[in-house]
Design goal:
Blueprint: H1 2-17, H2 21-37, E1 46-49, H3 68-82, E2 88-93, H4 127-146, E3 153-159, H5 163-172, E4 183-188, E5 191-192, E6 203-204, E7 207-211, E8 213-214, H6 221-227, H7 230-236, E9 241-244, H8 256-265, E10 288-291
Parallel strand pairs: 2-3, 2-9, 3-4
Antiparallel strand pairs: 1-10, 5-8, 6-7
Helix pairs in contact: 3-8
Length: 295
C-alpha cells in the first residue's frame, strides 16, 4: 500500500509540472506514435524550401591560406556584435547525463558534459569554464564600450538527473569567476517514459509500482524559463536578445558575435547559426516550410 501511495504522489507531482497535465502528455505521446507508425510526417502538409541564408565566407582556403578580405569582414561583424553582448540573455540547455559519450566506448564516462575537459593537458579546462569566462569577457568589454554596466544573465537548464552535479561543478570552481547570484541553474522536470507502441508509460525495472522517468528534451527550456521568470528578469534589465548555446559546443562561440551583428542589421526576430550540410550527412538541417494550402 505504501508503494501504491507513492505512485499516486509521483503521478500527481509530475502531472502538475506538465502543461495540460498528465492527459496532455499521454495525448501527445499517442499522437506522435500513431503518426510515426502510420508513416505520417508532422510536416506532410508543407513544402520544404531553403531558408534565407547570410553566408560568412571561410577565412582560409582549402590549402589553409588566410583570406584577408574575409577576415576583415569577420572582424568588422565581430566588433559590431560585441557592442550588443551586454544586451543578451545567455541560455544553455544542459540537462543530459552524457550517456551517448559512453556508447561503444571501452571506458564509460561517469560525469556530466559541462565538466568535460577541452584540453587534456589541463585539469582546469572544463567546457563550463570556457563558456562562462568567454561570456564574462564579452560582458566586461561591452560595458566598457557602451559605458553602461548591465549584470550578466546566464540561465542554465539542468534536469533532475544532473542538477546536483551541475551545482557542485560550479560551486567547487567558484563559479569560474562569475557572480554566483548571476549564474542561475533551473532544473527541468522529468516526464514519464513511454515503452510500448500504444504509448503506455514504462515502469522501473526494480519497482513495478514506480513509473520510469526521463528528461524531456532541450525544447523544455522555453517552458522552464517562462516558469522561472527569466523573461521577466531580462525585460527588467532591458535585454534585447536571447542566445541559446549547447553545453559542449565550442566553435559556436566564434560565430555568436557576428551572428548578433547580422541579426541586428537585418532586424530579425529569430536567427540560427549553422554550417553547410552536405547531402547524406547524418546531421539535422534547417528548412523553410510553406503550407500547401495557406502559404
Amino acid at each position: 500500500d505504501e508503494k501504491k501511495l507513492a505512485t499516486l504522489e509521483q503521478i500527481i507531482r509530475r502531472s502538475s509540472q506538465y502543461p495540460g497535465r498528465l492527459k496532455a502528455l499521454a495525448d501527445n505521446s499517442h499522437s506522435l506514435l500513431r503518426d510515426y507508425y502510420a508513416n505520417k510526417g508532422r510536416f506532410d502538409d508543407y513544402t520544404v524550401g531553403i531558408p534565407e541564408v547570410t553566408e560568412i565566407a571561410s577565412l582560409v582556403t582549402e590549402e589553409g591560406e588566410i583570406i584577408p578580405e574575409a577576415v576583415a569582414v569577420y572582424l568588422s561583424l565581430e566588433a559590431e556584435g560585441l557592442k550588443l553582448a551586454n544586451q543578451v540573455v545567455w541560455a544553455e540547455p544542459a540537462g543530459g547525463r552524457g550517456e551517448r559519450l559512453s556508447k561503444d566506448q571501452p571506458i564509460a564516462y561517469k560525469g556530466i558534459k559541462p565538466a568535460l575537459l577541452i584540453a587534456l593537458i589541463s585539469e582546469n579546462s572544463q567546457f563550463a569554464r570556457f563558456q562562462t569566462r568567454q561570456i564574462m569577457g564579452w560582458q566586461r568589454l561591452t560595458s566598457q564600450l557602451n559605458h553602461q554596466d548591465r549584470p550578466l544573465i546566464n540561465a542554465i537548464m539542468s534536469s533532475e538527473d544532473n542538477d546536483e552535479d551541475l551545482h557542485r561543478l560550479y560551486s567547487e570552481h567558484n563559479y569560474f569567476g562569475a557572480d554566483p547570484d548571476l549564474v542561475n541553474i533551473y532544473p527541468q522536470p522529468l516526464v514519464f517514459a513511454v515503452d510500448t507502441y500504444e504509448g503506455h508509460f514504462a515502469v522501473e525495472d526494480d519497482n513495478p509500482y514506480r513509473l520510469a522517468e526521463k528528461a524531456h528534451g532541450h525544447g523544455d527550456i522555453h517552458m522552464v524559463f517562462y516558469q522561472q521568470d527569466v523573461a521577466k528578469a531580462a525585460m527588467e534589465q532591458e535585454a534585447r536578445y536571447i542566445v541559446f548555446y549547447q553545453d559542449t559546443n565550442l566553435p559556436i562561440f566564434r560565430a555568436i558575435l557576428p551572428a548578433l551583428a547580422l541579426t541586428e542589421c537585418k532586424k530579425l526576430a529569430l536567427s540560427f547559426i549553422a554550417s553547410p550540410r552536405y547531402p547524406g550527412s547524418n546531421v539535422g538541417a534547417l528548412a523553410k516550410l510553406t503550407h500547401k494550402q495557406t502559404g
